[in-house]
Amino acid sequence: MATLSPTQSPKARRRASTRRRNNSHLPPYNNQSQHDPHDAAIAAIRTFLKNHTSYDALPVSFRLIVLDTKLNVKKALQCLLLNGVVSAPLWNSERSKFAGMLTVLDIIHLIQYYYRTTSYDYAAAEVEHFRLESLRDIENELGVAQPPLHREHPSSTLYDAARLLIQTHARRLPLLDNDSETGHEVIVSVLTQYRLLKFISINCNKEIQQLHLSLRKLKIGTYVGQATEDVPEGQRPNPYYPIATATPNTPVFDVVHMFSERSISAVPIVNEEGIVVNLYETVDVITLVRLGAYQSLDLTIAEALGQRSPDFPGVVICTASDSLGTLFQLIKRRRVHRLVVVEGEASICLEEERRGGKKGRLLGIITLSDVLRYVIGKAPVSDMAEQEEEVRPTQSEPNIGASASTSAEFSADAGGPGPSTAAAAPSSETPEETETHPEE
Where is the composition biased (Basic residues) (predicted)? Predict the structure, then answer.
């Protein structure tokens, strides 16, 4: 009869199994994290965000434009354009309270309303007197969703701030504190998706190098033919569904309608062969409005792009085989808000670097929201329910407005944002002279 050695004994094996193991330093997001460098890197980035606050991600030097709800639309728009921004926190001077954010989409809704219901001449005259506090009435008329009145404390973790951005489908998050002497709300700054992702790209170099999986494999972005099983081919709005597209001959107003109806900020421009030739953005519409050219909404996209500022940075193009790490390296080098995915094997590049060559057929589009949603992942249901209870907006609070002033011009006695707490804590990022918050 065979005998078991001490090391083979079931009793010995049971004793060995009761030994206490050291806890892992990385959260156990999945069973493969210990073996897959990509998953381990994502887990480490999430831990990094939980150990840093929103203060840490703010630049050393920045300016903050705060607008009052009593300001009319035209002056508010001029204020934004003169300061090189396309969004700003709003302030209700009567209540001495934060009143939400003014974004390009608010202006898009207003343009759509005037274009549908009035004449050009009436719109040009009315916009001189129309106050931003009435914008929500316009949105109700159009039947579009109103943005939530969300905010976060600057000392909250970046992980919590990122989760709130994802939960509310927002591109930017106002950071509010309270003045210790007056108790009034103080608008400290605005945390954008780009600022948050750039903070990761600068401070998590080792982890980013491990993000080797492709964007398509990670299901980051929206791709042609995605989620179309329940939509008959003949009923799809365009052959690139669910991506909204336009051609050079599409009227500008048709694209404005896409912006307003789908709450998107850019539409790829494709030719008859499906080749991406350009990108039309909400900021391009604002350029036309600034010039007072309301009738320009009847122009074609090709004609409107001829009036685009020469400072336009170009379209960022990538392929589905590009890695998430490569995308983070791009965010580290330059400001980018979205990427157009095309056929081919070339890595991420700029449109102007590909002139004279075939840019590729449209395959998809990737936004910063898509990237952030993947990096943060799905939060536990209990945590999300708790957070929804904490940030549930007050429905009666107005969420628009503007006054052409910087935060330093509001005094603490008046209950304004006040300059005392607007300074950002130094981050690990290279200091910048001035930081603004453009559309993302």
Answer: 11-23
Question: Taking a C-beta distance cutoff of 8 angstroms, is the pair 340, 362 a contact?
Answer: yes
Per residue in 57-71, pLDDT tens?
A: 998 888 899 999 999
| Domains observed in the chain | 54-201+376-409 (3.10.580.10), 212-375 (3.10.580.10)
Picking from 184, 195, 217, 259, the residue whose alpha carbon sits closest to that of residue 54 is 195
| Backbone angles phi and psi of 286, in degrees to 5 | -60, -35
Cα dihedral 30, 36, 42, 43 in deg (nearest 10):
50
CA atoms of 79 and 404, how far apart (whole Å): 6
pTM of the model: 0.75
C-alpha 392/C-alpha 357 separation (Å) is 50
Question: Can you tell me the distance from the alpha carbon of 364 to that of 266, in angstroms, rounded to the nearest whole number?
Answer: 13
pLDDT, mean over the chain? 75
The per-residue pLDDT for range 380-394, each reduced to its tens digit, is 444 444 433 333 333
The distance between the two most distant Cα atoms of the chain, rounded to a whole number of Å, is 104
According to DSSP H, which parts of 37-94 are helical?
37-50, 54-57, 73-82
| Cα dist from 52 to 154, 155, 193, 200, 377, whole Å | 11, 9, 15, 11, 18
Separation CA 62–CA 58 (nearest Å): 8
Residue 423 has pLDDT above 90, yes or no: no
Measured CA to CA, the distance from residue 75 to residue 77 in angstroms comes to: 5
d(CA 19, CA 13) in angstroms, rounded, equals: 11
| Token code pair at residue 88 | 């700003």
Measured CA distances, 175 to 58, 90, 114, 226 (Å)? 11, 12, 33, 35
Using DSSP's 3-state secondary structure scheme, residue 108 falls into: helix
CA 337 to chain centroid = 7
Q: Which range, of 30-39, 94-103, 321-330, averages the lowest pLDDT?
A: 30-39
Distance of alpha carbon 373 from alpha carbon 328, whole angstroms: 14
